[in-house]
Amino acid sequence: MGAAVTDVAVLGASGYAGGELVRLLAQHPGVQITHLASLGSAGRTLADVHPHLAGTPLAATELASVEDLEAVTAAAGFVFCALPNGSSVSIVPHLVEAGLRVVDLAGDFRLPAEAYPEWYGFEHPAPAWLDRAVYGLPELFADRIAGAELVANPGCYPTPVALGLAPLLALGLIAPGPILVDGKTGLSGAGRSASEAGLFTATEESIRPYRVPRHQHTPEMERSLTLATDQEAQVLFVPHLVPTVRGVLTTCYAPMTGNDTSEELTSVLADVYASSPFVRVLPPGGMVDSKRVRGSNTVELQVVADPRTGQAIVVGALDNLVKGAAGQAVQNMNLMLGLDEAAGLPATGLYP
Ligand SMILES: NC(=O)c1ccc[n+]([C@@H]2O[C@H](COP(=O)([O-])OP(=O)(O)OC[C@H]3O[C@@H](n4cnc5c(N)ncnc54)[C@H](OP(=O)(O)O)[C@@H]3O)[C@@H](O)[C@H]2O)c1
Asked: Is the pTM value of this prediction over 0.90?
């Protein structure tokens, strides 16, 4: 007899993150996809909405309606919710109450209730559920994730920021603020809905900041640092859209508390992540590159001390759809199910 295989559902399967979940889960040895659902694409086949997935055994599977929750509970024991921000919160509690375990990729369970009106523009309708959700950054919170019924998968920008800064902050090598974070993302970060601002004509050769200084990942960066270090961090975050498809690059400028060298700061990160399969800490002299991690679940980190200004510059790069979304969600599922943390996940990227 082989090992038990878990039945999983993907809600939002027609989206970019949902499609990436299907691509990864279709090759995962410990699970089988038994349910796919979306909103406007319900009734279409997987291959129709994602032609690049036509080679999977699920190609002819019709997407169900995401509103039919009975079909989800009948089909699966584990659910990935890859719906727009504000849409998961009305669905996830029903699924968890029905005994299913859930990883939510939206921002609906990542913050305290009082932050939602200011940063997401809605009053949180189920605040009691925020305490039941575990913030799912596997390298920092694996123990909490393992027993969780509901995991809030982190945002793409906060992931490299928290992984790079938390160990330095925990040891008091950098001050908790103000920490400046510059972010860059490719176009897939905004999902697959068409918009004028996302047209080729508008984005080719364009680099532009957006949501300055009001991006919803700002309080998530602060909260993840607090969860990891018990310190109140203050972050000023400015994201930029760059004309690539995949990739996130974050550059953090954090005030150093002492005179540590780049080598000393690097060795702190290297020690903390020595046994993490998906964190690659580059030695001094290297520089992270979002292209190298494309298609992989790996995050590259780099830290450089600048004694002239007293700043530590912490740079991180990941693929927003893999380590920034679907790959990290599968990593969380692996921990929740007691599987090998790296099962079904690529650590090497596509290059060139
Ligand atoms: N893209 C990224 O890089 C990234 C990274 C980290 C986290 N995330 C998060 O992952 C989630 C999905 O993002 P995405 O980029 O995959 O978005 P997307 O490409 O726009 O896909 C959204 C999915 O949700 C469905 N949907 C749309 N409106 C809905 C509603 N009102 N109620 C229920 N379902 C609805 C869509 O179904 P139809 O197509 O059938 O209408 C589609 O399957 C978001 O919360 C996002 O913040 C995305």
From this structure: yes
